[in-house]
Amino acid sequence: MTLFDSPSFEGHEGVHAFSDEKTGLKCIVAVHSTARGPAAGGCRMWPYASAEDALEDALKLSRAMSYKNAMADLDLGGGKSVIIGDSRTQKTPALFEAFGRAVEAVGGRYWTAEDVGVSPADLAHARTQTRYVAGLDGHPAASGDPSPVTAEGVFRGVRLCVERGLKRDLDGVRVAIQGVGHVGGYLAQKLHAAGAKLILTDVNTEALRRVADETGAQVVAPGMIFDVDCDVFAPCAMGGAISLDTLPRIRARIIAGAANNQLADADTGREVFRRGLLYAPDYVINGGGIINVAGEIRALDADAAFDPDWVDAKLDRLALTLEEVLDQALRERRPTNEVANEIARARIKGAAAERAAA
Ligand code: NAD
To answer: Fold for domain 3-62+80-127?
Structure first.
């Protein structure tokens, strides 16, 4: 299969591969769409087994960012970058400076930020080479760690799904969280404060113990999280958690969490629907982080300070969009992920048409 035939390519405007012999940088910058504005999406550093795997991940993540940014009602398109390497052993300032030069070479059509394996400190090195970096600390426009805002958006989304799907509030609702890292940890605290009963897992036993102690949660081994008795399953680790293999084991009526690309494939989305589960499409419910980043891009462009009220208003709007998706899916008896894709594509197409007409 060639790049253009890959299902994940789907209309990408540009896919850029960069290497730098001196620093060992190998990275891909994928720009899916700039119809709504410059593409924005984080940079992931991961020890991909092959360049093909890295490309596939970049394409999937980049397209998802177009959809996510459209659903979060941001004037941003979708893009993503991946650096091939082990973030625990292969990071150097020079590597991220070389990455910054790669971002600069894309000419402002792509803004980068953090993703798995990349920290604000890494991005500070990239920022020495390009202005198209958000998610930094220590300047008036800085948005800081996006994870608490992502968690707040997911929390509001879980609450909405519980109100609609179970006709109750969060008090006493049993939520199983897979992954208590940055977002899962904050989400656990918010759900605990709202009275939910938590069942947690993580491959990082130290993080798991800490969050469980803070929230009085039950703890299970990573492989057991799909089998626990719960009302809500919240995937907050890596993608592909919901598959035709894991789905029959899930006892929750609602799937709502922070992870990107939660559904292993389109068949899984249809099976979730067939089984009558309420699924909050991942890129809708987890849009809080990019809203935070957009707040920084907006402030940088205007040479102004970061405005948390703007972010909060966008989070309110995001909850309304999730409601719109759930309403339409119920009305049309269709999977929520398909409805969300349709709305996102329509929003992107509408922006492209407006641009063409201007
Ligand atoms: P993180 O790396 O801080 O947390 C992920 C956690 O999952 C880690 O603690 C890790 O040990 C655990 N984990 C990995 N594999 C696991 C497994 N098989 N079983 C159980 N636990 C496992 O990442 P994060 O920033 O919290 O992001 C979590 C997810 O949410 C990712 O999919 C990310 O792409 C997505 N997301 C994050 C943000 C954000 O603002 N950070 C925004 C949108 C989406």
So the answer is: Rossmann fold (3.40.50)
